[in-house]
Amino acid sequence: MQKKPRRRILTRILWGVALVLVLAVVGVVAWSQIGVMVAEPEPLAEVRDNPDITVTDAPEGIVLEPADGASDVGLVFIPGAKVDPWGYAALLQGLAEDGVTVVITRPWLNLAFFDPRGLDSFTSAAPDVDAWAVGGHSLGGVRACQLAPDADALVLFASYCANDLSDSDLPVLSLSGSEDGLSTPEKIEEARPQLPADAKIVQIDGASHASFGDYGPQAGDGTPSISDEDMRAEVTDEVDGFLQTLVP
Predict the structure, then answer these.
(1) pLDDT tens digits for 78-136?
(2) Which secondary structure element, helix H or strand E, spans residue 132, and what is its range?
(3) What angle (nearest 5°) sits at the alpha carbon of residue 18, between those of residues 15 and 21?
(4) The whole model's pTM is what?
């Protein structure tokens, strides 16, 4: 006679656990859609009107390519948490002007950690590219570090690796900002041992965390003293020079 009450209790417990899991999933999905930092309209309009590049809203992501033909080297770029992928188009368009194919991914739920896709899910947008680097901004860079073993190089924007790549011979470029209030210079330095010994580390004077995109200010960030034009020029010079070393 005691089995039925026990079964009822067990059933109630299981239903309770299921309800908690459903509420947790719904909560995460809802949170991921709130407060997404959207691309600023003026820089984005410049990208769309740029005659030197081709912009394609492809299934793999936002593809920026040189208008005069295919390129030999590409960059898969992963946005930071809850940042509109279009918010990086203006910063990265200079690379496409210089002959680099750029694929800006659209992370699931606006969070790269929830996106299990491999690197080939994005490089398939440009199958003729010979060498691919993977990179990202902030938490997008952390995800890029996880995909780095499948790439030819790694590029970090105001980010650092949680996994250890110190024994790798992978070429690495790490760009950070002196005024970054989130991925602070101290945090970048603390995580330096996770990168190969010959990684190129560049701190951009006057750059904040949000200087690495065009999506407006971020809470907790520092105040930038570098102009958008100078920021784009410096990022383009550093990344393009680095990526061109991958081409035989």
Answers:
(1) 999 999 999 999 999 999 999 999 999 999 988 988 899 999 999 999 999 999 999 99
(2) strand 131-137
(3) 155
(4) 0.88
The pair of structure tokens assigned to 42 is 């003026």
pLDDT in tens, 14-59: 666 655 555 444 444 544 455 689 999 999 999 999 999 999 999 9
Pairing of strands 61-66, 100-104: antiparallel
Q: Are 63 and 55 in contact (CB under 8 A)?
A: yes
Contact 170, 151 (CB under 8 A): yes
Amino acid at 74: G
Identity at 169, one-letter amino acid code: D
Phi, psi for residue 152 in degrees, rounded to 5: -90, -15
**Tokens at 137, concatenated:** 């901004």
φ, ψ at 134 (rounded to 5°): -120, 140
What strand order describes the sheet that includes 153-157? 53-58, 61-66, 100-104, 73-78, 131-137, 153-157, 172-177, 200-204
